[in-house]
Design goal:
Elements lengths: L2 H15 L22 H13 L33 H9 L14 H9 L4 H17 L5
Helix pairs in contact: 1-4, 2-5, 3-5, 4-5
Amino acid sequence: MSIRRVFSLFVLILGLAALGESQQKQIKYVPVQPTSPASGQEMYTAYCAVCHGKAGNGNGPAAEALKVPPPDLTILARKNENNYPYDSVRSAIVGDELLPAHGSKEMPVWGELFWGMSLGHSSEVQLRINNLNRYIESMQRNN
């Protein structure tokens, strides 16, 4: 899939976040802004919070418009015997895992997006994925 299509898909998702309060929902298209690969929090806020919510509870502004509700990212460790599933989350971010909300393996939204932002520099892509994953790990609730 081309980078242009991936960015278009991402813009569509971001547009869902800008839905008005009216009954008739409209999508507002906004340009994708690259973030620092060094800040997992900045990437989460820019790319994930629109669906998963600022606190990661799955209640972002676009969540209600999705066919498959986004999961609560704050309980991933709890659901995995109190071990954060780093590899599984990494696979979800990259697009290796088949997640209905993220598309099929043929359409890995985040993997393609990060490659495009990083202009194909593998080390920067890995930095983005690792820092985003570590930030999600920091969001875990103990109870």
